[in-house]
Every structure is written in C-alpha cells, then in structure tokens.
Amino acid sequence: MPAGPVDPGVLGARLRQQTEINDPTTGAADPLEVEARSELWPHTSRWALIELIQVSQSGARRLEEYRFTPTAHAQGLPQFHGPGLPVAIAFERSPNGASRARIYSARALDSGPRSCLAADGHLPGERGPEGILARYFAALQAADLAATLALFEPQGYLQRSDGRIYQGHESLRARFTQIYQSGGTTLRFCSRIDEGARTVLEVCLPDDRPAAAVYERGGAGLLAAVREYR
C-alpha cells in the first residue's frame, strides 16, 4: 500500500470513539485525557503531515502503520531518522462492539505506566512449513548472529522504532551484533494478525514494556522486512 496523507481530524475522531487508549505518554487512559496530554495525538499544531503506510487486519484486530512529520516549531519530540516518526496504532474490537486502541512509537516517548496484554501461550505459532518466525525468535533467544542473518533476504531490512533502517546483511550484522552484546532476548507473545505474507505481533519485552512489530516475508519465505514499534 503506497503512503497516503490522512486527515488528522478524522484520525482524532476515530481515537475519541475508543473506550480506552494505551498511549506511550499517558499509559492506559480515557481518550480525552490522551488527547490533552499525549505527544502523539494528531493535533495539526504539532504534526504537519500524517501518512498511512500500511494496514494489517485479521478478525477483530487491526494495525495501522503511520509516519508522523512534525511541524517546524514542534518541541519535545524524540530524535528520529527519515522523513517522519514511525507510529503504529492497534485497534481491537470486543464482542460487544466496543473498541480500544494501543499506540506504539519511539521508545523515548514511553514514559507512561503502560502494561502489556496478557500473554498467549499459543503464540507465536506458525503458518506453513517454513516456520520462519519460530526460527527468528529462537535465534533472538540464543543470540545466534549467523542464524539470524540467514533468515533475512539479501536486501531485507530492520526498521527500529525511531525510524533508523538497517538494510542488507552487512548492515543487519552490525545491528544484531550490538543487540546480542547483552545476550539473547526472550519475548512474551500477546496478540497476532496474519494477512498474506505479513504478520503483526504485539509482545511484552523483557522489561515488561509492550511493543509491536510487523514481519513481512519475501518470495522465498525469508524475512523481507521487520518494523519495530515501542
């Protein structure tokens, strides 16, 4: 899906319809409190352009990936790389029709008392015979650099939550070498969206903070892209 501009007023109206928003700045709060306090609310005074990059949906869950470009005078935002700040919004509708949202972005914004979703012992699970995600998370847990790189396409990339991109095996090698200096990473898996060759996982990090990531498989079944949101 090509990037396209979004009307901030329309996005704000959708967020006000939620029963609760789990936001990096405010934690889980009423939409009006989030609107008043959050750095990420789509106020035109702060954001010059909001672009929708990708949508992934399955059943009652939907994840929308955005790029927020600040106005020239916006202050207090974390440093980011590229044309805008990556932001992901997860919407989840309950059986009674009520909807709540969880907002993910750069780790530097994560100052609110945020809690993870409950872990799901059946995740991450796998579709098809390749088991690429199961192999990826096993490599992360073991801090196995060679195994990790082998799971990416030659021009596959990792996008950090601040927008920095590591593309190609040499760039990925530098990034994962840095990650693995402190050992392996074990995640607790909370929710999953599958749409075609794309999988979205919401997880609980080792420090008990929530995060989301989008995993895209290439034609050979290897990872073409991993985009992280905190």
Give a written overview of the molecule.
It is a single chain. The chain is α+β, with helices and mostly antiparallel strands and 230 residues long. The protein folds into 2 domains: 4-109, Nuclear Transport Factor 2, Chain: A (Roll); 132-229, Nuclear Transport Factor 2, Chain: A, CATH 3.10.450.50. Helix content is 19%, strand content 37%. It is built from 5 helices and 13 strands. A 7-stranded mixed β-sheet has the order 1-4-5-6-7-2-3, covered by helices on one side. The chain has a 6-stranded mixed β-sheet with strand order 9-8-13-12-11-10. A hairpin with a 2-residue loop joins strand 4 (47-58) and strand 5 (61-70). The longest helix has 11 residues, at 132-142.
User: What is the string of helix and strand elements?
Assistant: EHEEHEEEEHHEEHEEEE
Helix/strand-derived class?
alpha+beta
CATH top level label of the largest domain: Alpha Beta
The average pLDDT value, as a whole number, equals 92
Number of strands: 13
Using the CA coordinates, give the radius of gyration.
Answer: 17 Å
Shape: globular
CATH architecture of the largest domain: Roll
Low-pLDDT ranges: none
Strand order of the largest sheet: 1-4-5-6-7-2-3
Set down the secondary structure blueprint:
Elements: E1 4-5, H1 8-16, E2 21-23, E3 27-29, H2 31-37, E4 47-58, E5 61-70, E6 85-93, E7 99-104, H3 132-142, H4 145-150, E8 152-159, E9 165-167, H5 169-179, E10 188-195, E11 198-204, E12 210-217, E13 223-229
Parallel strand pairs: 2-7, 8-13
Antiparallel strand pairs: 1-4, 2-3, 4-5, 5-6, 6-7, 8-9, 10-11, 11-12, 12-13
